[in-house]
Structures are given as C-alpha cells and as structure tokens.
Amino acid sequence: MVDVVEETADTWRGFARPIWIDDSLVVVPAWQDPAVGDDVVAISIEPGGAFGLGDHPTTLLSLRATRTLLTVGSDVLDVGCGTGVIAVMAAVLGAGSVRAVDVASAAVEATRDNAVRNGVAELVEVDTNARERT
C-alpha cells in the first residue's frame, strides 16, 4: 500500500476556478469566496472523494442544457452524479424533486453534503440504487 501525503494530494485545489454556466449562474469550489453580485446564483461544490466541479466538458454542457430546459417544479434525474453538481443546481433553480444516483459511495456522500451546503437537501434524493421510484 502506498501512503498518500494529503498536502500533495490536495495541490489541485489551488488551480480550481469558478465555472460560469451563464452570466447569472456559477459553480464555485467550496473553499473559495464566490464574490459575485446579488443577481448571480452561486452553487458551492466540495468534491470530497468524488469527481466533478462542473469543469469537465460533458458536465458543463449538461449543466447548460439543464439550465436552459429546467422549469420550476420539474423532476430531474442525475445518473452518475459524482459530486451532485447537476442535481444541486437543478434543486437550487426550482426543480420539484431531484433523484441522483451513482455507483460510488463517495459520490453519494459528496452529493448529500453538497445538497446540504446549498440548502436543498430536502429536494435531493441520492443513493447507489437505480431502482424505480414508486
């Protein structure tokens, strides 16, 4: 087994930057001050042991598509949720309910934590089970 030096493993955090979805929506690493105006929605994301701040091209495109297509009260499914950035954004923007699923327990934990961090824990259901809701 290899020992991991935490300071080295976390050096990437110094290079993380806010990800602008559009002019009024930004995803901000949780350890940074969003420093945005009142007319901008800032989603705070802490990846923990999971993947995703919203900067991967497929995630960014999905965030932008969700932003465009989401209507208040929509039901949203985020499959392979990683940190829950799409699920959390949808809930913050008015989704009626959000289901997030990932096979990794670290992703489930990160998504739950990020939903709490952004005040939408009651709207985001997350686990590793892809079962049908009844």
Strand order of the largest sheet: 1-2-3
Low-confidence stretches: none
Biggest sheet details: 3 strands, mixed
Helix/strand/pairing category: alpha/beta
Number of helices: 4
How many β strands by DSSP? 6
The radius of gyration computed from the alpha-carbon positions, rounded to a whole number of angstroms, is 15 Å
Mean pLDDT: 88
SSE series: HEEEHEHEHE
From the spread of the alpha carbons, the general shape counts as: globular
How helix-rich are the residues, as a percent range? 25-40%
How far do the termini sit from each other?
44 Å
Beta-strand residue fraction:
15-25%
Task: Give a verbal description of the structure.
This protein has 134 residues and is of the alpha/beta class. Helix content is 28%, strand content 21%. It has 4 helices and 6 strands. The strands form 2 sheets. Strands 1-2-3 form a 3-stranded mixed sheet, with helices on one face. It has a 3-stranded parallel sheet with strand order 4-5-6, with helices on one face. Helix 2 (57-69) runs parallel beside helix 3. The protein is globular, with a radius of gyration of 15 Å. The relative contact order is 0.16.
